[in-house]
Design a protein that fits this description.
Pfam families: CSD. This is Cold-shock protein. This protein folds into two domains: 66 residues, OB fold (Dihydrolipoamide Acetyltransferase, E2P); 62 residues, no CATH class. The protein is 24% helix and 29% strand. It is built from two helices and seven strands. It has a five-stranded antiparallel β-sheet with strand order 3-2-1-4-5. A two-stranded parallel sheet has the order 6-7. The longest helix is centred in the last third of the chain and has 18 residues. It is globular, with a radius of gyration of 16 Å. The chain starts with a strand and ends with a strand. About 15% of the residues have low confidence.
């Protein structure tokens, strides 16, 4: 089991974060069949995976959430964040940083594997925690 970490319907793929941790798993839009329109970040799924040329990929997937009643979560863009009178911005939640870093890496470096993306974003979160830029 796991949750959809990132899914781009336009590009036709995304990644699932395993519930037990470990390397993210590549998933193609066609793996969801007619339920493709229900896929969104945070969606709980059950899946089987296989080793692909670039890392783990989904062999079969089943949606566990009733996607029709699940709310859509909007991740605020950096320019949406509140600014205090003292000029300091609000601290990001670690999950927000992970989502934004993952989005940036997929958009600008699509040849990275799920494992490489996970390693890079974990290092970003470590740096951000060290400097107090994220909470959680």
């Amino acid at each position: 089991m796991g949750r959809v970490l990132r899914f781009d319907d336009t590009r036709g793929y995304g990644f699932i974060a395993p519930a037990a941790g470990g390397e993210d798993v590549f998933v193609h839009a066609n793996d969801f069949g007619e339920a493709r329109h229900l896929v969104r970040p945070g969606l709980r799924v059950e899946y089987e995976c296989a080793e692909g040329d670039r890392g783990l990929k989904v062999a079969s997937v089943r949606i566990l959430d009733d996607a029709a009643v699940q709310p859509t979560v909007r991740v605020a863009a950096p320019h949406d964040r509140a600014v205090d009178d003292d000029g300091l911005c609000d601290v990001l939640a670690a999950g927000d940083l992970v989502g934004e870093v993952t989005e940036m890496l997929i958009q600008h470096l699509p040849s990275l594997t799920g494992g490489q993306i996970a390693e890079i974003r974990d290092r970003f979160v470590g740096i951000a925690r060290k400097h107090g830029w994220v909470e959680g």
